[in-house]
Each structure stands twice: as C-alpha cells, then as structure tokens.
Amino acid sequence: MVGRRSLDRLIVIGIIGIAVWVVIVGRLFAVQIVSSNYWKTKASYQQRKVETIRAARGEIYGRNGEVLAKNTVAYDFWTTKSSIKNIDKVDSMFAEVVGFERGYIGRRIESTRLNWLYLARKVDLNSALALKELEKDSVFSTPVYNRIYPYGRTAGQILGFVDVDGKGREGLELRYDSYLKGQNGQRTIISDAHGRPYRVYQLDGKPAIPGAHIHLTIHPELQQIVEAELAEGVERYKADNAMAIFIKPSTGEILAMACYPDYDPNNPGRADLFARRLRQVTDIYEPGSTFKLVTFSALLENNAIALEETVDCENGRWFFCNDTIRDATPHRNLSARKVFIHSSNIGTIKLSLRLEPEVLYSYARAFGFGSPTGIDLPGEVVGILHRPENWSGMTPAAFPMGHEVAVTAMQIASAYGAVANGGVLMQPYFVKSVVDPSGRVIRDREPIRVRRVIDEETAEILCELMHAVVDSGTGVRARIPGLPSAGKTGTAQKLEEGGRGYSDTDYISSYAGFAPVESPQIVGVIIYDNPKCQTHWGGWTAAPSWKNIVTKAYATGIITRDIEPTAKTEEEGDFALVPDVRRMSASQAVEILTMRGFEVETSGEGFVVEQAPAGRMVATGSTVRLILRPMENKTGTQVEVPDVKGLTIREAILEMAQSNVKFRIVGSGVVMAQDPKPGKFINRDDICLLKCEIKKSN
Fold it and tell me: What is the pTM of this model?
C-alpha cells in the first residue's frame, strides 16, 4: 500500500515536472524563436547607447592673428538613478571640488523622473581628475569642449557667447554658427543592465568634423583702447552709458566697436541683457548736428549755397512754426562755411529751406539712413526715416539739424566713412575670411561698394569744412597735434517719456570724425547717453574721447600718416607724405622732416607757424620751407615736461597725459630721448617729441 502511494506521488511530481519543463521550453521557444526580434531589439535598446561626439568649434581670430575665442577640454558628469551608489559621498565630492551647495546632487537625483541625468557640465580638467574616483559609484564623465575667450571682456559684445551645448547664442558666435559649429560625430557603447558603460566595448561610429575658423577685422589693441576710454568717459562725464565704432573707410572693415557697460563672455549669465546688447546696431537715437553732414551734402550737390555767402543767424533765437529754434552759441551773421563750422541750427535750417523735402530725404536714403547697413551681426534695425508726405509742419526745421529722424551708430559711422572715402559708401563688415581646419579658405570677404553718394569734389569740400570744425569750430577739443583730422560734433535733446516733446535736461552727445584728413585711415563715432556734467555738449565730451583714442592709436602705430607711394618711376623716384609740423619747435620739425627724407629751409626763429608744402605727397628729397616765429608765453599757460626716458610708450602716454603735456612719438619700444628736456616749462600747446627705440637684448 505504501509503495503504491509513493509511486503515485512520484507520478504526480513527474507530471508536474514535465509540465514545468514544457512551459519553460515553450517560453524559451517563444522568446528565442517566435519573439526573437522583439527581445533582441529590447536588449539592444537597454545595452547599447549612442553617444554624441562633440565637434571642436572653430576658433575666432583678430586682425593680426590674435586668438579671441578658442576651446579647452572639459567634462560632463552623468549617472543613472538605477545604478548610482553612495549619494552622500557623491554629493560631498561635488560640493568640495565643483563648489555645489551641499545637498544639491541628492535633490537633483530625487527630483528627476528620468533614469539618466547630468550631474555637472563643463567641469575643468583638474576638477575632473579629482572626481575620477566616483566611477566606482557609477558616476561617469564624457569629454566635451568648453568655449573660452582669452581677452575676457574685450570685444565681448561683438563675439557673443555659446550655450552649454556649444551653440552660438549672440554676436558673431550666433551669426556665423553654421561655419563655427562643425559636425558632431557619434559612437555606440555597450553598457550593463544598470546602464554602466563597458568602455572596452565601443562600436565604430561617425567621427566629428571640426568647425571652420573665422578671421575678423577687429584690432584687439585698438578695441582695448576704445573700451578703456568709454569706461573712463562714462565716469568722467557722469553719463548713463556710451558706445563707439571705428572703421576703415576705404573698405568698411570694423576696427573696433564697444559699448559701456560691457560684459565678459566667459560668464554671460552674470551680465544683464543691456550690457550684452550690440547697441550700435539694435538701438536708435536722434543724431543731432552730426546729421548736418547730410544737409550740407544736399546743399553742395545741388549748388544751393555759396560757402562765403552770409546767413543771418538771428542772434541765437528764431521762431519757426510756432516754436523757437536756438543755437548753443548766439551768432548774428555767419558765412555758410561758418554755419557748418560753428554748428548753427538756425543757419542750417535757413539754408536747407532752399531744398525740396524730397531732396533732403533722398540724400538721407543715399547715405544709408532708413535701411540696413548689411553689417554681419544679428539684430540690426533700420532706424526711422519718414517720407516727406508724412512730415509734420516742424519737420522741415527739425530734420536738417538731426531731429525727427532716428539712426543707429553704425549708420552714422558708415555715412562719415562715405565722405572720408571720396563720396563712396562701403558696406561695413567684421569677418575677413572663413578657413576650414585644413587651412583652405572657404569664404574670403572682399570690400563691397554700396553706391556713390556724393561727388568726389563735394566730399573734398566736406572734408575741408570738417577739418575747420576741428581747427577752429565746435570740435577743437578733438584736435591732435601733428595729425590733421576732420569731424563734426552733435548734441541732441532726448525725447521725453512717451515721446511727447524734448527734454531740457537729458541729451545724446556725440562726435564723428576721421584721420588723417589728407588720406583717412580711420573713421570713429563716439556717443555718450545723457552726460550729467556741466558741459554736456558733444564737443566737450565725445570729441575729447575721440581725440584720446585716436592719439593713442597714432602713438602706438595702429594708424599712421605714412602712406604707401602712389607713384614711383625710375625718373621720379619715391614719393612720401610731408607731415604737418606746424606749432612744433624748429628742432623737432627739422628732425621729423629729415627723417622722412626731405630737405628743410627755415626762416626766422622759434616755432613753425607756416609750412609749404604740408600734408601732400611729394618726391622724397624735396625741400620743405618753414617760417618760424617765437611764441609769447602767457601766465598760467605753461606746464612742466615730465621725465619719461626709459618708459614704455604706454607708460609715457599716461605720464604725459597726467602732466597735460602734448606730445609726438617717433619710433617704437622704449623712450630713449625727449625734446624739450625734463623739467623745462613749455606752453600748453607746445609739443614734446619722444624718440623711442626697441631695446636689444644682450
């Protein structure tokens, strides 16, 4: 009996066992045969991960090859919620090494619904090495590129920045992102059930293709000079903000462009939107008297004035269309020439009324106002330029003096560049060339001539008028000894809040000019927003800043009056520009002229009061005649010459500026000699000659 029961139990157990095996085999058959493709796909999805290989972003270079933006290797740290261990330890390490707040990692892991997540991004190499030991806690890293800007704040608004994924977000980084970004690659890695990668099992993928490099027109040293002057000027004149542009008029190349306040593109998150904005192309303002360039261009081109005719300027007050027009300085009768030189609003309006509104409008359009300049930056606006049929009764008076029209600083710079370029408007630009990683040039920018705006003869007359503005008019504070320049001041009342009327206390003060006047190499525009100093006029604020910038650029060799010979034959020999040495001492003038290869004849004693020729291209070896006269000393107008021997040019410039001594630099390197000697008292308008040489190492 007992044996029978045992046998029955064995039979039942056997049946059950066979049934289990049948189920197992059936399941295996279903998995391995029937549903094999499904499970293979699911396993592949769990075990394989496609990882992006970031392409190296192209670098950005300055005018002379300076690296303005480049990449360094950094690391992104990541994990999976299902695999991470010792969260407290991981949190503590990241707090210690990266600087996170304690508890941050724990909160981040708990708050996410995803299994895979970043813990930190763009961690530098040294910190990444310190975090390497966390791999055993399932914290892994992936090498990526971090964008850095070696010059810091310099040209920050121009360059823009990239986001955490390396995409251009502002400035040139955004505008040329398609060239700079390259093409990302990818690779497939094998991981375990917890998502931990087996580094040894990496399948072949697609390699990354680095981005192209871009070469700019920007001169970093000039950019730094401009930025420093704007920062000092905002403080000096108690302005709300400031901006500036300097361009090469013959080509349209942007040499420097700055706004203050500025920001460091290495830390864009710390700056507000205003500091990051490219206000030269995104913001508009009423230009004031700098717009009189358009008015006088139209008058001259249409033979509507004679420069020596007399205009009644009403002693500074004139009623027009139920409003009062005022001049900053009252004048009774002025020649048309002096109307421009002394920036008489009344005289300008009276002259402009000889022209039909359509004529003034057409010249404003020809100079580029009311349309984009085509600058290769994002966000450019066109300004406001109303057609004559939409003018108000006051517009015929407001428009000629730069009101009821809104422009960008870029448009003003381009317009003045057209005059400096003999009447031809050029398209401004930043990028000279785009070069792929192999060195092949894939885009080479040639200067683009937009149109001829005015005749060359008209441009020459305007250059002469603007030179007179600097020599004896509202722009005298922009005058640079030894470097003839031309320019125009502007002071415009700002609109009241809501656009109803003009403020009596808030102004836009500006100056636009170019140098050297005989062959312009640089055009610059300086704008101060709402200077609160006692003398808020453009001639007292923006003009001195323009002078400071161009003086330093001239002293450091960024710009020069040396012009390449325009004619050279075996019979004629070499040609050179005769420098303007007026107001210099006889010894200084003779030394400069002889260094340039000219013979010198002098008459009289003292300082140079007349010179022939001056500022012209003549054959080397030609004779330059100088007339000398002693200059009278005036009480309280003398300054002591400081000792700058042995100083670098930058140090000497600072010392001379602090001593209020005007100077001229010859050579480069270190100051080896100076004339007059240190300790001597000279008139404020006299020039101290600094002779510099590059020290040779022993």
Answer: 0.73
